[in-house]
Amino acid sequence: MVGGFAAALAAGPVVLDGGLSNRLEADGHDLSDRLWSARLLMEGPEAVVAAHRAYFEAGAEVAITSSYQASFEGFALRGVGRATAERLLGLSVELARQAAEEADAEGPGGRRLWVAASVGPYGAVLADGSEYRGRYGLSEVELERFHRPRLEALVAAGPDVLAVETVPDADEARAVLRALRGLGVPAWLSYSVADGRTRAGQPLAEAFALAADADEVVAVGVNCCTPADADAAVAVAAAAGGKPVVVYPNSGERWDAGARAWVGGRTFRADRVERWVADGARLVGGCCRVGPAEIAELAGIVRGGA
């Protein structure tokens, strides 16, 4: 399985989807719950399938599942028991797979579609913006203990790859890298960054280099950051990690955790992908507030230059 996804990256750029939450909100779903899009695993799974399909139909080759904010601890705060939480984590993979099968059946042949199981940082379960700061006050052992059970639950559902994403802190990255050992599924490691550093303030070259010897990790890079920060980070990731690079920034707007609203202007442009690919990116797409229209444009540029 590792070879299959890694081989796809070696063959050329692979197009990721965009922001799942903004697609769901555009379809009229309220995601103000602390579980965010993971709430719909319980209350509206058909909406999750539809959102994934929208991106596949726009030209994405990878669907990132709705499990970013899903964890045993997070579900427990909603009164959901462990067995049900495990089933819901697995369901996130099944829904993305269903969307891939439906899109493949109705669309043109010859395009392999992949499912990436989203693994958000510990801060996401706190639902207070901590994933943009890191430094939770937990040890690496405690963070590994948090991540490993849900990684196992996601792997049991059969994703093609694990999307370890929006990691704000190199300390948490070390913990996740240990938790990934022996799972038998490839992963990418993607940091949330600002001004050339992780959100916790570590130099990016050092953060990316942590994965250099991790056989499970097939790509390193950034997501959930500004397009400008993504531009600067791609070459650093390519040089430091010795691996293909993953990059999927936000629209350029900024999340105000206190106001629980997006502020500022949009700076995402699909033609940025040309520079990303030239600098070593092999997984390219968008994150929060980047929708199917932008992914369709980005996919057109990637395939036009392939």
Automatic annotation (TrEMBL):
Give the cofactors, semicolon-separated: Zn(2+)
Q: Which domain of life is it from?
A: Bacteria
- InterPro entries referenced in this protein's UniProt entry, alphabetically: HCY_dom (IPR003726), HCY_dom_sf (IPR036589), Hcy_S-methyltransferase (IPR051486)
Residue positions annotated to bind Zn(2+) are 224, 287-288
Q: Which residues form the Hcy-binding domain?
A: 2-302
- Keyword tags: Metal-binding, Methyltransferase, Transferase, Zinc
Gene3D superfamilies documented for this protein: Homocysteine-binding-like domain
Annotated protein name in UniProt:
Homocysteine S-methyltransferase
Q: Which organism is this protein's natural source?
A: Kitasatospora terrestris
Query: Which gene is this protein's source?
Result: mmuM
